[in-house]
Structure formats: structure tokens, C-alpha cells
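Closing statement on the magnesium ion sub-project.
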Amino acid sequence: MKVDVILGLQWGDEGKGKIVDVFTPRYDIIARFQGGPNAGHTIIFGGNKYVLHTIPSGIFHPQTLNVIGNGVIIDPLILYREIDKLREAGMEPKDNLLVSKRAHLILPTHRLMDAALESGKGATKIGSTLKGIGPTYTDKYGRNGIRVGNIADHDFNARYEKLKAEHLEIIRHSGFDYSHHLLDSLSFDTYEEKWFEAIRRMKELKIIDSEIFLNQSLDAGKSVLAEGAQGTMLDVDFGSYPFVTSSNTITAGVCSGLGISPHRVGIVYGVFKAYCTRVGSGPFPTELHDDDGEKMRVGGMEFGSTTGRPRRCGWLDLPALKYSVMLNGVDSLVMMKADVLNPFPAINICTHYQSGNELLESFPFELDDQKIQPVYRKMKGWNADLDNCSQVSDIPDALAAYIQYIEEEVGLPVDILSIGPDRLQTLER
Ligand code: GDP
Ligand code: IMO
Ligand code: MG
């Protein structure tokens, strides 16, 4: 068997969580392969809304196992907040949740470092979610990190204290005054206390060699779906660097983040919104600063699932989408939030970038909003409600034409169309 993949093709928040949840009944195992609690994956069904940050989005199907892979970084306190919320809703995630021993831990001081680094950057700040992502991956690659598999070690506390002391030294050196800095409205000491409580509680979880488990499961004929976090334009190598996250969000990340050989990668589903959003700083060629942008933000409820920040909104960007498709080897497209464009009489779609007199066909090294202007093709809007569409043949002609144009440009089929946030508002072609 092979590992199918669902990942984001834009700047995150494409609707990956919803689609993973919709696909889960077809798979035995769902596995997150990178990122950490910077992610916020929303799943809505039965009138309830859930937002997951660390736990894979297959958790609502008790017959499916959910693996937090080695490429993920975990803040135990945030993980336990999620587990407790699921328990309050009557679920028991412990039963179908597995955690890799090799996943790295986000320490409270990683979060302080994130805040110190961002504050030091001033106007050039990345707009990080401040969950400690950059500093934790830095320690992983600098070979200083502490992993989930270490939590039962006799010297765990000593290692923690040593790394904490190193972090505090760096923070002091940066001049950042952390003495009153709050972590999720908690003082550092309270956060740290709760963090240790969560570490103790983690011992109840199934902590495994996930790479062996996943490969053996594939050998035994089990089906696996890998769930991405963030999006391709936030990839540390190919995103709009340095305004990116600190992991490989692309298909390649599945191999290193789960311990899967490239031969075992199956169908890659690329998820994109019918328009674009971005939260945090960095270039965004098709960003709208007008009423249309506001209409998308309000209609699409474009406020961050993790931080609540308003998301920047703009038209669909085909050069960026084609670049993402190339990097990920996408087989099948999933278009989300078509319904948000319902009220628009006309829709723009960026086909190229103009740089001086040059028309750019390929994606540039640096996306500089000052130097690059989007070139748009104007299309007719459908200007109609999609609530009564129960199959693709029901959609308005103008929406069908919009999809067909994207398919022709990108060279791939849009196999799934999402027309609302609920699990059930999903059309398969
Ligand atoms: P993820 O990070 O990729 O999982 O996406 P998020 O959950 O952060 O953001 C997607 C947002 O759009 C969530 O609030 C979803 O409930 C919502 N959503 C998903 N699909 C649709 C859709 O087709 N239409 C509308 N209107 N909302 C959607
Ligand atoms: P999901 O999985 C959207 C953005 C942040 C910031 C940059 C770096 O829900 O799609 P970081 O905290 O990683 O240091 O932030 O990346 N970012 C996301 N934007 N969706 C996400 O995840 C994101 N995770 C990080 O806003 O600009
Ligand atoms: Mg999100």
C-alpha cells in the first residue's frame, strides 16, 4: 500500500482539516507529518465546531488510528488542551491516537524565544503564531532538542533545565524583557507548571516508533493518509522566505516527517481556496485592500483558527498555484470555499505577474509586492447561492467555467469541491 497525501497549496488555512475528516472513513490511519500547534484545522459536523492544532483530523472517526509523526513538534500543554476538549465532547482520543517517540518537544522557553526573536525583528517580523515553532526546529537541526521518547528518561528534568538555561541566556542577551511576558495569558511559571503536568499525562499515550508502525501497517495492507499543515507557500525552502514556517510543508516532508520512502507516496491531493488568504507578514501579490477583500474576509470568516488574527484576502493566484502543484507532484485538486465568492458579480484570477515590461510565466525567486504586479483575467461570477447543490451537476454554469479554466491552466482535475464548512457540504466529481 501507499501513503496518500492531503496538503495545502497556498499560505495555509485552505481547509485541509475539513477534507482530511471527510476522507478519513476511506483510510485506516491518518498521520500528521510536520508543523506543530501553529496549525489550526477546523472540522464542523453535527452543529459542532472543533479546531485541532496537533492531533490529526481523523480523530473523530474512532475506527481510524491517528499518528502524530516524527516530523511534528509538540507542545504537551497544547496537546492536552486538545485532548481535554475532545473528552468534554464525549470522545476518548487516547484510544486511537499514537505519538512518535521522535517528535520533538516545544519547551516553554522555545515560546519565549519566538517572542524575543519576533520583537527583535521590529517591522520585518514574520508574524509568527508565537507557538515556539522556529526555535524548536532550530534546536532539532542544531541537535539540542528533546524528544517525546525522552520523557520517561531519568535525566529528563536535567536535560530540560540545561536547555532552558541556554534559552534564557540567549533571550537575556537579546535584550528582550521576558519577566512579564505571558504565554496564552499565563505567567511563565504557571505555563511551565502546567507543561510539566502535561508531560506527566503524556505517559498515558501510546508512544511508538511511528516509522516502523507505519511501514509495517502498509506492508499489512493498511491504508494511510498523510495530513499536511501550513501550506506550500509557507515551506521553508520554497515559500516566500523568510516569511515562512520552519518545516517542509510539501510532499517531500511526508518522507522525512513519517519515515516513508518516496516509492511509497501514493495520490497527492492539493487543497486550495477559490481565492487566496494569508495570515502574518510577507508578500502576497493578489492581496486586496478594498471592499472585495473585506467581503472575502467577512463571507469566508477569515480569522485565524490559531491566533484569531484577520487573514489577508485576495484573488486566486495561478502562478503560485502552478508552482505548488509542481513542487508537490499533485495528482488531484480540491477546491474549497467556492461559496465565499457567491456574492461577486465578477471574479478576477491572476494568470501572470508583470515585472517592469516583463510578463513572468514562472514563479520568481523573490515575490516582491513592490516589483510584481498581478495580471488578471476577469471572469463572470455566478452570483448565486450554492446551498441547493447536492452534486457537481447542480453548480451554476459560471462556477463550472471558473473550475474548468483552473483545470486547463493547472493541467489537473478539480475532483472535490467544497461549498460550505460542514462535512456534508462537499461535492465529489
Ligand atoms: P486548515 O488549516 O487548512 O485546516 O483550514 P482552517 O480550518 O484553518 O481554515 C479553513 C476555514 O474555512 C475554517 O473556518 C473552515 O470551517 C472553513 N471552511 C472550510 N471549507 C469551507 C467551505 O467550503 N466554505 C466555507 N464557507 N468555509 C469553509
Ligand atoms: P494551518 O495548518 C496559516 C504562518 C504564520 C506566520 C508564518 C510563520 O492551519 O494551515 P510560525 O508560527 O510557523 O513561526 O509562523 O506562518 N502560519 C500559518 N498560516 N495557517 C497555518 O497553519 C500556519 N502556520 C503558520 O502566520 O506568517
Ligand atoms: Mg488553519
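Residues 339 and 386 are 6 Å apart (CA to CA). With this model delivered, the sub-project is considered complete and its resources will be redirected to Aim 3.
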